[in-house]
Target: Starvation-inducible DNA-binding protein
Amino acid sequence: MSLHPTRNTLPEDIRRQSIGLLGQSLITAIDLQRQAKQAHWNVQGPQFIALHLLFDEVHSAAVEWADLSAERLVALGGTADGRIQQVAGQSPLPPYPLELRDGKDHVRQLADALAKYGQQVHQAIIATADVGDPTSSDLFTEISRGVDEHLWKVDAHHYG
Ligand SMILES: [Fe+2]
Model:
């Protein structure tokens, strides 16, 4: 993959590694957006309104996580690839089950997806710091704080 010119002084080999990790984060964050909307639209049950609103909060947060990842990646000389075909082929998340209705099932499914993204981002915090890009590591730390917060809010429904 060729990089476009930038005055960023970070060495190219470091930028390439960060661009790879940021690109993976972009893919998962876009899938997470779609999964949160699946939950937002299809949830039913006694906690409908609380979960309906909470799942939309997760969607908005995931839009921001994708944006942060994409824009830093481009700042480092990369090309953001958030095309739906790319996301469908590359996302590490399992497809969101279409048959879910109950709040507890959506809570479990979305909490699993958030936890998986959280794990990916946590690994990226360490990897980008190790290769010598503390700025990307800081960005992943910011995302990680948000993912953990939303995982807590979804998981707090204690459906197990
Ligand atoms: Fe809505």
